[in-house]
Amino acid sequence: MRLPDIKPYLVTRRLIPENQEAPIHFISAAITPEQYFYRRNHFPYPVISEQSFLLSIGGEVKRPLTFHYQDLLRMPSKEMTVVLECSGNNRGHFRPRVYGEQWEGGAISQGVWRGAPLRDLLKLTGLHAASKEIVFEGHDYGKRTDLEGEFMFARSLPLEKALHPDTLIAYALNGKPIPYKQGYPLRLIVPQWYAMASVKWLRSITVIETHFNGPYQDIDYVYYPAKDSDAGKMPVTTIHVNSIIQQPLNWSVLTTGMHQLYGIAWTGTGFITNVEISIDGGERWEQAAIQKYPGNPYSWTFWSYIWAAPKKGEYTIMSRATDSIGFVQPPEARWNRKGYGYNAYSTVHVKVD
């Protein structure tokens, strides 16, 4: 009798709006299959109409233009492997606890995105000399609990990041049109930044001369280091250096003998150069083997380590990553009251029996 294929599922955090984690501990492919891509939404999914295939660029530009989906397909394109990580990934690990979706470790996925560089579109419209930020608005909208009225999901990028050659208006994921739940038909892709910047269901681009102060720019996606005040607040931007132990799972029971520990590491600054493993709760560290992907500057890095479990007992296994800029994954994440940017050592507890 043939045994059935056993496959993982997304982990549901909320249904309306839909928020689901990728089964990150069971993904061994460099490219996350569509059905395992994590889903992060603020509102119900938007209705896709013919208007959804138009993208307008206006504001402080010399020639306001509207591009059709087909126009973008005919433009010079670029294809890149990019990690997308929700800035709230691992929020459930913060202590003291914080409010919000209690993501564990699966609000992260990696795909091959194809699209037209944003700066090519902006060259066609032209920018005024006083331009400061570029605002991106999606088709998704709804109500907030803290403000009256309805809001579109909208965020801005500083001019320098918007004009980076790898900031894309994407229309394809893993060789196919972007799936509906990942932003079809058009999505902004901003490598190295947390994924709130990669606006889905993109409808308009507006160039402005001032700072954009929408609620998803100046209220959410801001680090608030103080519990009861806004002192020291800073915007959430670049992905922190990070790693995760995929196997073994936390609180696993193992046998004595040889075990392969493995996982992934990633960063928004440079690339991963080193991953270290501790078997004794951080007292001693040893090098893991890392598997790089040349030519993919925005992709995650697989790592592995062979552990000869010597004797029965309980062990605390940790991983920490270092990137090419010199940033090292810290023993504790910087607490902030909205729970963004968690990147403390990945830790699992196992018992050898």
From TrEMBL:
One of its GO terms (molecular function) is molybdopterin cofactor binding. It comes from the Bacteria. Residues 42-215 form the Oxidoreductase molybdopterin-binding domain. One of its GO terms (biological process) is sulfur compound metabolic process. Keywords: Metal-binding, Molybdenum, Oxidoreductase. Residues 237-352 form the Moybdenum cofactor oxidoreductase dimerisation domain. Its cofactor is Mo-molybdopterin. This is Sulfite oxidase. It comes from Paenibacillus durus (Paenibacillus azotofixans).
